[in-house]
Amino acid sequence: MTLAPGLLSAVTCVVAGLFGPQAVFASNSAPPSASAPPSASALRAEVERVQGEAGKRKAFSVGFEQEFFSSLRKRTRRSSGTLLFLAPRNFRWEISKPSNELYVNNGKEFWKYTEATRHAQKLPASSVELDFVDLVLRLDSLSQRYDVAPWVRQELPVAKKAGGELPAATSDDPPPAVNGMLLLALTPKQEGTQEKIFLRVDDRKAEVRELRIRYRNGNRTRIVFEALKEGGVEASRFDFTPPPGTAVDAIK
């Protein structure tokens, strides 16, 4: 699965401090929680606390499962793999299923490599290819870049498909409210490819469990993170040398 343009940079922002073990795909079939969303002041205080905790993380690895919905093809593609992070902005997004793909940024250059086609692209480190990764890695500056509100079920008829409700990857409805989980709806302060972002965060550990992004072109992505491990990440994991016989495109 090749990631759509603009998908990489949002993950980078949330990644640096929002993951945790035991993440699972939440069902949309459960009834909405009766608990009221937090007040604006309570939400702001909680977000500030989570941002402070997230900013303390300097290195971690975490597994992920991703669903990408194409509005053009009306199809959902699934992939899974591992994300590595090393402060301040090094990340390695490695897909292992259904095929091997690698996206790695060491602050000097950004590489994209697809094993099946033996093709690599070398881009500037400032590339916004993985916008969702940037979202995860920079959780500590969340409120500077987004307007933050509670993620609540929309007061509209539930969208349906043949056989039941829409799958979570194409729905804006949150999972059932659970104590210790912070549900956030983010609106970018600067207009770009992202229209709306939804986060499920373990507020006690400052770990992102689920991330959904709705893009202006109708595409959507949903990522669930699990089995976060802090530390143990070597700087050499963010260097990349194309294997012999690889076609390389350098993009400036």
> Helix count?
4
| CATH evolutionary superfamily | Lipoprotein localisation LolA/LolB/LppX
Please tally the β strands and state the result. 14
Which CATH architecture is right? Clam
Helix content: 10-25%
What's the level 1 CATH class?
Answer: Mainly Beta
* Strand adjacency order, main sheet: 7-10-11-12-13-1-2-3-4-5-6-14
CATH topology (level 3) name: outer membrane lipoprotein receptor (LolB), chain A
What is the strand content?
A: 35-45%
Mean pLDDT: 82
> How many structural domains in the coordinates?
1
Structural class designation:
mainly beta
Short description:
With 252 residues, the protein is mainly beta. It has 4 helices and 14 strands.
Features:
252 residues, outer membrane lipoprotein receptor (LolB), chain A, 12-stranded mixed sheet, 39% strand, single chain, mainly beta, two-stranded antiparallel sheet
Structural overview:
The structure is a single chain. By secondary structure, the chain is mainly β. Helices cover 13% and strands 39% of the residues. The strands form two sheets. Strands 7-10-11-12-13-1-2-3-4-5-6-14 form a twelve-stranded mixed sheet. A hairpin with a 4-residue loop joins strand 5 and strand 6 (119-124). Helix 1 (8-15) packs parallel to helix 3. The model is unreliable at 14-34 (pLDDT under 50).
